Structures are given as C-alpha cells and as structure tokens.
C-alpha cells in the first residue's frame, strides 16, 4: 500500500507498506546481485548504512545457488539475513544482456547460461515461480528489455508481448501465492512499462497495464543506450499515465543528477549498481563531488573522504589510508568505499525526502544537480 | 614489562604491559601485512574479534606506501586506526623470502623490490629507522632468517652476524627513541634467536642475546622447512635459556596443534597468516575440526560454521550461504570466513589462558590437540 505524504509539483514524498516493513520514498534499493552486496558488505552492515531495501537478481540466483536451493533454505531473507524488504527483478534484463544465444518466442526466452552454457527456458510463469521460491517481498513481472535505439516496429511488437507476459505473470503469481508451502504468500507484483524511446508506445503500454491493479509500476528499458534527455522526456510522458496511489520505480538509474531529475518528475523508487561498482574502482561520491582515490594527491591527505559525511568510513579512515589500500590491492579498500557510497546514496535520498517534506526540494535540486556529478 | 601470573610446568600465563596497553599471554598477533588484515577486515572489526595485537610488515610498508609517508601521517596507529599494541617485524624474513637478487654483507642486505625491482639496502639501522617511522609498539631486531635445512657452517656464521646485527639494532633504537619528533619514544625491541635446527647454535645464540636486556625474545627461523618434531626439539632446547621475566615469541607459528605444543613448552606470543590465508580459500577452523566450504555437502546446510562459536559470523550466517558466496566468487565469503578464523584463533588463546589460570591446561591440551587439526 502506497500512502502519499507530500506533493511538491510532480515530485512526491510517500510511504510504501510491504509485508517486510515500510519504505519511505523516494528510496534507493541497494543491489545485492547474488544475495550479497559486491565488495564484502553483508546484510548486517546495511543496518548502519541507512539501507531500506535490498535488490537481488533472479537470473543470477536461478543459476547459482538455484532458486530451489534458496527455497529449501527458507527464502532470501533467511538466506542473506536481511529482514527488510527485498525486491527481485524478473531475470529479463540479464537474459537479454548477459546470457548468450537467445531465442524469443511468445512463450518466453530460451538462452544459454553465461556460467556454463547450459540451455535454460524462462517465461513469465518460470520467472514468477523462481521469484516465489526466492520469496522476495516484491517480484517484477517478466519483460523484454530492448536496447536503445530500437526500430519502432520491434519496440512495438516487443512491448505488446511484454504486456501479454505481464498478464501471465499476474496470473502465475496469484496462483503461486495461494499454493500451500509458499514462503511469502503476500508477495507483491510490479508491472513494467516498456516502449523504448517512443512516447506513443510508452503511453499506450502504461494505459494498458495500469488497470491491472498491481502493487506498483516500473519504467524499464531506460538507461540502456539513450541520452539522459531522452530518458527524462520518456519519464515525463509516462508518469502522468501512472496511478497516483502506486509506487513508481525507474529501473537501473542512476547518477545523483539522474535521480534528482527523475524525482522531480514523480519517480519514487530507484536501483543502480553505480555506487557499488564505482566504489570498487576507487570512485567515491561526496557532497563536494566525485573523487578518484587512485589519484596521487591523496597519498598524504589525512582527512576523511567527505568531511560532511557521518558514515562509519568517514568517521574513522583517511583518504591517505584508502589510497594506500587501493594501491596495495587490499580488499578492504573496496569494502570501505562501497560502504561509503551506499551510505552516500541512502542519505542522499534521506535528504531528498526531507526537502520534499519541508517543501524545499526545488532549492535542494538546484544546489545539488551539478555539484554531485563534478569530478574533484 | 612482563608479569608472570601462573605457571603450569613450562607453560605460562602472563601479562605483558606495552605503551599501547596490556597483552594477556599466551596471545595471538593478528597479521595485517600492509596495514590491513587481508580479506576486507578493518581495525574497527578487530574489536569484535577478540584481537589483542596487530602485526604489520616492515618490508611491505617500506615499499608501499613508504615508512616516511606513514610517519608524516602520524604512524601506524593513526594510519590504520588500531589503538592497541602493534608489532612490526624487521623486514628480514621478507627480504629473504620475497625479494629478488639478494646480496648479504656484514653491513646488511641489498635486494630488489618484488613490486618494481628497484634496488634497496636494508641493515639493522635502516630497519630500526623504518620501524621508528612506522611507530609500532614493538620493533623486531633485523635478522637473517635461514631456510631449513641449512649447512651447519652457514647457520653458524649467519647466526653470529644476526647477533652482531642485534647489538646494532639496539643501539639504533636507543638513539631513535631519543630523537625529537619520534612518534613513539617508548618503542620496545625484541631480539631474535636463530641457529637453524642446531641445538648448540640455538643455545649459544640465546645465551649471547639474553644479557642485552631487551623487552622480549623471539625464536625465529622455525616453521621454514623443518618438521614439527624438529621445531619442538629446538623450542625445548632454547626456552630454558630464555629470561623468565620477558615474553617469548615464536615467529610465524602455526596450526592450533603447533600452538598447543609450543605453549606447553613455555612460549607466550605467536603470529601466523594461516587463519586469514586459509579463510580466503574457504578453509575454516572450528572446535570440531577444519571445514572446506567449497565442499558440496554444505549447499543445503543451514547451520552455522561452528555451533559452539559466538563470533559475528556464526551468530548470523549459515554454511549454505557461505558455500554459495564462495562458489559465486563474492568477496563477502572471504571477509566472513577471515572474521570467523580470526575470532577462532583469538578465542582459542583465551581458552588456553583460562586453562592455564585454573590449572587445567594439560587436559585442554589433550582434548584439543588432535581434534582441531582434523578435516571434517
């Protein structure tokens, strides 16, 4: 259930109630691909990093350790020891980006595992069954994520199929939630809007899926090759067609600047590997801009990553120490920077929520849009 | 200052007071080679892992980030944020094991860095200067660590030179501790007993160095190629010649069984990369024996690594989760197992101390000697 707390033009401050607790929105979902945040960060650490939601990948967990294994072990919450909300994606994105030798039919997709090449079939029913086994809080409908730019006809036909897959996803989930032995019988379902960069396809798709009364709606197929301006244009076209009383999730986005622009256009939920992936390469976000810790100028810099940050890393360690750890190839470098970046993203959202609540979002947007993306 | 609390035949329970706090002995020193425990464990984590002492490597830190850099950053305590005792080795062991193209003279050793091949000279004065810059609690004298087996004549001449180097190390440290601007003017010095597997050389060396009134004495050059039985024989020969009122440190040892045997013969301090290195390869120590987490039998095992263990890992995560993390190449696998193994070693020493204190060490020794090394 989504409760709107405060509007600020299109932007909104809300509260989304799930079977595993409430999510204050706008919110960032922290990506734990194979059931663990990359960079040696555990579910226990997330408590100190202001994390509200963990996102796990259906495709990865289906291949390893296998969703049946996770089911036998009590589901993702018990397996990873994260007791807050978990969203699982549908596997669609990875099937179309990671797997090899795909063959798409009306039924679903046959593909070869990127780990051992073994042939696997996944359609809406299979994706829902896997996600039911994983027992996430929120499941995503099975969709085709089309790379941009895409030919109009392909985007149109794919989008229509994705809508048909959504109806099958909903039916499958209703059935699975009623099965005895289902770990999370209150699993929620989000539908996904597709249509590439074509506004008419996007709007038409949204109109067709909004009446299915799902628990939330995602905008997929963005940040996959198009420019930021095209992305914002599509968000602007789609959001007015989205139900007011359901959370809106922009998949796989993005930089702090992208997030500010999308929140301003009415998006509530986000996920992105950027904070963790950048951190593992020594790139950290700070309130002053982005830093590259491999830079020699940090060798003797005894200050913290971000003097304005209260994270466990900034409260304790110096840029010089982190620079040294990266240069020495110490795993601790990655862990500490991943922790900082996760904290940065989650507290960035906390500040966004605060500014929406006290109606200063426009000022917050203007003050932060450029500075957070600046390289320093 | 070393205070003897309880004797149990040769074994002893003591307390070693340093400028950075007291160490309850027998104690394990946790190896943080380049200023960080390998496996993404920070100084802050060590507080939860019953760690008393951190050991850092002079050779590695001299090469990277450079001891002058560490000095400018306030020394190792400020750099790594560990506020307890830190022991630095002398660099000797790594010069003789890692570096290339060594040339030994009476003055010291010229060698090529294993990182970039650059030529470096290190003698007793250089090692002491580096360790003074690092500002560790305890510095080790510069020695030659001879691989076993070694020809008698080589061991004899090397040992005599190591004794001469020890005298120069002591003089250098006295001078450095008095210099204005020295970060730790109360830096302690341990001498190192050498002599390969020859009892007469070992005893003669110990007799010559014990009168130097150093802060502690180490037995070096063991666990470098000889059998465990030879190692125990040498410890038995050397310990009676070591001062009663100084801590005794067996360098680079070892398995839980090795440690029990050495404690039983009167050793107080230990260090070894085994708990951390094994953990990174999925091998964990438990009270029931050693486990290999890559083993397929753990795929559906929902129990903790060691049901008798109170560490943060055993209190939260299952063998199945750790097995999955290793199979998926997730860094978190290494961190969690390193944490467990460090905790295992430090609490193993806690139990040794307890058994010495209540005079049940012999029973503890008999009950644990075989079981802890068993593969299960």
Structure description:
Two copies of one chain form a homodimer. By secondary structure, chain A is an alpha/beta fold. Chain A folds into two domains: about 270 residues, Queuine tRNA-ribosyltransferase-like (TIM Barrel, Alpha-Beta Barrel), CATH 3.20.20.105; about 90 residues, no CATH class. Chain A has 14 helices and 16 strands. Chain A is globular, with a radius of gyration of 20 Å.
Fold topology:
Two copies of one chain form a homodimer.
Chain A: E1 2-8, E2 11-18, E3 21-25, E4 27-31, H1 43-46, E5 53-56, H2 58-63, H3 67-72, H4 76-80, E6 86-88, H5 92-97, E7 100-104, E8 109-112, E9 119-122, H6 124-134, E10 138-140, H7 152-178, E11 188-193, H8 199-210, E12 216-219, H9 228-238, E13 248-250, H10 256-264, E14 269-271, H11 274-280, E15 283-286, E16 289-292, H12 319-327, H13 331-357, H14 361-368
Parallel strand pairs in A: 4-5, 4-14, 5-6, 6-10, 10-11, 11-12, 12-13, 13-14
Antiparallel strand pairs in A: 1-2, 2-3, 7-8, 8-9, 15-16
Helix pairs in contact in A: 6-7, 7-8, 8-9, 10-14, 11-13, 12-13, 13-14
Kindly list the characteristics that best describe this protein.
3-stranded antiparallel β-sheet; 16 strands; 2 domains; homodimer; 8-stranded parallel barrel; TIM Barrel; 376 residues; alpha/beta
The mean pLDDT of chain A is 96
Structural class by sheet pairing and helices of chain A: alpha/beta
**Strand/helix succession of chain A:** EEEEHEHHHEHEEEHEHEHEHEHEHEEHHH
- SS field, number of helical segments of chain A: 14
Q: Could you give a short account of the major beta sheet of chain A?
A: 8 strands, parallel, barrel
Distance between the termini of chain A: 42 Å
What is the percentage of strand-forming residues of chain A? 15-25%
Provide the CATH superfamily of the largest domain in chain A.
Queuine tRNA-ribosyltransferase-like
Task: Specify the CATH class of the largest domain in chain A.
Answer: Alpha Beta
Parts with pLDDT < 50 across at least 5 consecutive residues of chain A: none
Query: How many beta-strand segments of chain A?
Result: 16
Radius of gyration of chain A: 20 Å
Widest sheet: strand ordering of chain A = 4-5-6-10-11-12-13-14
Query: Largest interface, by Cβ-Cβ below 8 angstroms: which chains and how many residues each?
Result: A-B, 41 and 41 residues
> Given the C-alpha coordinates, what overall shape of chain A results?
globular
Number of domains in the coordinates of chain A?
Answer: 2
- Assembly of the depicted chains: homodimer
Architecture per CATH nomenclature, i.e. the level-2 architecture of the largest domain in chain A: Alpha-Beta Barrel
Instruction: Estimate the helix proportion of chain A, in percent.
Output: 25-40%
Question: In CATH terms, what is the fold-level topology of the largest domain in chain A?
Answer: TIM Barrel
């Amino acid at each position: 259930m989504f409760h709107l707390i405060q509007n600020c033009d299109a932007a909104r401050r809300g509260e989304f109630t799930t079977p595993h607790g409430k999510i204050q929105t706008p919110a960032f979902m922290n990506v734990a691909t194979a059931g663990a945040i990359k960079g040696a960060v555990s579910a226990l650490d997330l408590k100190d990093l202001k994390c509200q939601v963990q996102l796990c990948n259906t495709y990865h967990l289906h291949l390893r350790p296998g969703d049946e294994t996770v089911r036998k072990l009590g589901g993702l919450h018990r397996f990873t020891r994260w007791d807050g909300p978990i969203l699982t994606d549908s596997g669609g994105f990875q099937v179309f980006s990671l797997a090899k030798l795909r063959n798409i039919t009306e039924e679903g997709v046959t593909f070869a595992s990127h780990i051992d090449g073994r042939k696997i079939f996944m359609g809406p029913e299979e994706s829902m069954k896997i996600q039911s086994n994983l027992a996430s809080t929120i499941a995503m409908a099975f969709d085709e994520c089309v790379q941009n730019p895409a030919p109009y006809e392909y985007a149109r036909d794919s989008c229509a199929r994705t809508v048909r897959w959504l109806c099958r996803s909903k039916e499958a989930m209703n059935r699975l939630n009623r099965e005895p032995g289902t770990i999370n019988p209150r699993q929620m379902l989000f539908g996904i809007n597709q249509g590439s960069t074509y506004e008419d396809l996007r709007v038409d798709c949204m109109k067709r899926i909004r009446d299915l009364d799902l628990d939330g709606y995602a905008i997929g197929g963005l940040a996959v090759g198009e420019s930021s301006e095209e992305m914002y244009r599509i968000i602007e076209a789609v959001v007015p067609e989205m139900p007011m009383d359901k959370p809106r999730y922009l998949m796989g986005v993005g930089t702090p600047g992208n997030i500010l622009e999308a929140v301003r256009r009415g998006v509530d939920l986000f996920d992105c590997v950027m904070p963790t992936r950048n951190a593992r390469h020594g790139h950290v976000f700070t309130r002053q801009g982005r830093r590259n810790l491999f830079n020699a100028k940090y060798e003797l810099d005894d200050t913290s990553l971000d003097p304005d940050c209260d994270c466990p890393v900034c409260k304790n360690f110096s840029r010089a120490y982190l620079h040294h750890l990266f240069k020495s190839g110490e795993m601790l470098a990655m862990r500490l920077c991943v922790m900082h970046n996760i904290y940065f993203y989650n507290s960035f959202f906390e500040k966004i929520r605060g500014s929406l609540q006290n109606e200063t979002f426009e000022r917050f947007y203007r003050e932060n849009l450029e500075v957070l993306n600046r390289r320093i």
